[in-house]
Amino acid sequence: MSGVAFEDDIQLERERARFVRRRSLHLLGSLLRPMRWRFALMLLLVASAQGAKALGPLLVASAIDAGLPALISGDPTRILLDGGAYLTAAVAGGVLTLWFIRLNARISQAALFDLRKRVFLHTQRLSLEFHETYTSGRIIARQTSDLDAVREVLDSGVNQLLSGFLYMAFIAGLLFVLDPWSGLVLLAAAVPVWFLTRWFQQRSQLHYRSTRVASANLIVQFVETMAGHRAVQAFHRERRNLDEHTRLADEYRVADQRAVGLIGVYNPGLVLIGNVTVAALLAVDGYRVFSGTLAVGALVAAVLYAKRFFTPVQDMAQFYNSLQSSVAALEKISGLLEEQPSIRPPRQPVPLPRAAGRIEFDDVRFGYTPERDILPHLDLVIPAGQTVALVGSTGAGKSTLAKLVARFYDVTEGVVRLDGVDVREVAFADLRRAVVMVTQEAFLFSGSIAENIAVGRPEATREEIRAAARAVGADRFIELLPDGYDTDVNKRGGRLSAGQRQLVSFARAFLADPAVLILDEATSSLDLPSEALVQRGLARLLDGRTAIIIAHRLSTVEIADRVLVLGGGRLLEDGSPAELIAEGGEFAELHAEWESTTV
Ligand SMILES: Nc1ncnc2c1ncn2[C@@H]1O[C@H](COP(=O)(O)OP(=O)(O)OP(=O)(O)O)[C@@H](O)[C@H]1O
């Protein structure tokens, strides 16, 4: 399994390329399998339509060589039959084509619908660890441009490629039946076409891979700039971002230009080979007609076939680029789908329907990467109902410790327990109910305030939502909003301040009513009235549950039962705020510092 590991590589080594190809085909197969009978019917329709279309020149030859002489000697039957057959074949070809295009659209749209859903479901399932490194820009590229590339091929792939291929096969076959010598001339022309196509294939595959990588890089940079536009403006990064964007856009331009440039060689090459073939046929067959070994009708049919033979090649070549980008897209999507969540649900979950909230770190060691331990060794017990403030310098490992309790990551060694049960053995649903993490950003989803609070417990009634808001003191500002609880948070007038967002996220957590609450306190300083409001809301939220607060404020530390000072991933101090101040260690210093800045 390699997942998304090699998705930026332009040139894959042989073994890996084969693996990636197989993975894409497997994905395609799994998408089409449920519709295999419909797919088979479509193939049959495509084949029949092409067969009917290819009959034309043969009937023309028969009309000229047999029908015309019979007509001249007074018998119109043969030529009428040939004309009728020609008409029937043309109508049948048209009707069958219409039918298979419609069927193709149904099949391809159903497959895409399935794929779109799978990609969404899967990315949602992947663990935080994956999302932290893969970036949302890439996910967006997978969901948008890559799915579009796959759509293009599924929509017209069978139509262009398969029908083109079958048409050529029928033409070659019929020409051999009609006149093997002409068939041989056509076959000889296929040799340079084959070499030219191989050349084109190999180059365009490389170029198309680079265009996909370049387009994904562009999207990543764009999303990052837009998502961080506040920081961009605050730090006047516009110029630098523009330079970066220009560089990436230029890479994209160059890559695309190279890819398109290939068609400029390939297409005229094909046209040339086609024309030379027609000229060769005219020369060879013309001589044979002259010497009486070939009928005129056969010559006409051979020329018609030769001209028609190369028409689909051009279409197929044009289409080859879309196919390449679609193959590259499918390779990436299949890689993404191959990624496994690093946090796995337990095989035999221990039920924990109503946790009390006792947390225990037993001999825990943890690092995000094998090279570096963030928490080298931690033993810690937090009794149920205790409010713990985590303090420490930046990068000390406070968020990391909190993430281990919520099982966003698994420990490298040792055990984290909730109510005595290893968190790795608790069913996801129970763990998510028992442990809720309120992050600094206080993320709001699009929708109303009420819907945003209900995220904590989707089945909550309006009264329960109001009660939660009331409990944390969010009701007053909500009722003053234009539409109260129904105010859309993304509309003007519904835009909330940092403090208000915090209160909404508290109400959400209150409604969820977890046994353990983890709170990454916002570092941004609120003004004093908001801070007082948020602190009151917080106090009500904490009541009766275990809480771990990554604290950045004096007022928060003061409501904690216990303070843990973390430094370099180790517990440096542990005690009640009063005890630690009396001891005069690091916390006492920090406390004094906070006190001096808040007055
Ligand atoms: N996803 C990650 N992958 C790799 N390293 C990480 C990851 N997240 C954090 N780290 C590293 O782990 C260390 C501890 O980070 P953590 O976020 O736990 O610190 P913190 O004490 O919460 O800091 P802050 O107060 O600044 O939020 C840091 O050195 C950081 O670089």
From TrEMBL:
<dbReference type="InterPro" id="IPR036640">
    <property type="entry name" value="ABC1_TM_sf"/>
</dbReference>
<dbReference type="InterPro" id="IPR017871">
    <property type="entry name" value="ABC_transporter-like_CS"/>
</dbReference>
<dbReference type="InterPro" id="IPR003593">
    <property type="entry name" value="AAA+_ATPase"/>
</dbReference>
<protein>
    <submittedName>
        <fullName>ABC transporter ATP-binding protein/permease</fullName>
    </submittedName>
</protein>
<keyword id="KW-1133">Transmembrane helix</keyword>
<feature type="transmembrane region" description="Helical">
    <location>
        <begin position="259"/>
        <end position="283"/>
    </location>
</feature>
<keyword id="KW-0472">Membrane</keyword>
<dbReference type="InterPro" id="IPR011527">
    <property type="entry name" value="ABC1_TM_dom"/>
</dbReference>
<feature type="transmembrane region" description="Helical">
    <location>
        <begin position="39"/>
        <end position="64"/>
    </location>
</feature>
<dbReference type="GO" id="GO:0005524">
    <property type="term" value="F:ATP binding"/>
</dbReference>
<feature type="domain" description="ABC transporter">
    <location>
        <begin position="359"/>
        <end position="593"/>
    </location>
</feature>
<feature type="transmembrane region" description="Helical">
    <location>
        <begin position="184"/>
        <end position="200"/>
    </location>
</feature>
<keyword id="KW-0547">Nucleotide-binding</keyword>
<dbReference type="Pfam" id="PF00664">
    <property type="entry name" value="ABC_membrane"/>
</dbReference>
<dbReference type="Pfam" id="PF00005">
    <property type="entry name" value="ABC_tran"/>
</dbReference>
<dbReference type="InterPro" id="IPR027417">
    <property type="entry name" value="P-loop_NTPase"/>
</dbReference>
<feature type="transmembrane region" description="Helical">
    <location>
        <begin position="289"/>
        <end position="306"/>
    </location>
</feature>
<keyword id="KW-0067">ATP-binding</keyword>
<keyword id="KW-0812">Transmembrane</keyword>
<feature type="transmembrane region" description="Helical">
    <location>
        <begin position="84"/>
        <end position="101"/>
    </location>
</feature>
<dbReference type="InterPro" id="IPR003439">
    <property type="entry name" value="ABC_transporter-like_ATP-bd"/>
</dbReference>
<dbReference type="InterPro" id="IPR039421">
    <property type="entry name" value="Type_1_exporter"/>
</dbReference>
<feature type="transmembrane region" description="Helical">
    <location>
        <begin position="161"/>
        <end position="178"/>
    </location>
</feature>
<feature type="domain" description="ABC transmembrane type-1">
    <location>
        <begin position="40"/>
        <end position="325"/>
    </location>
</feature>
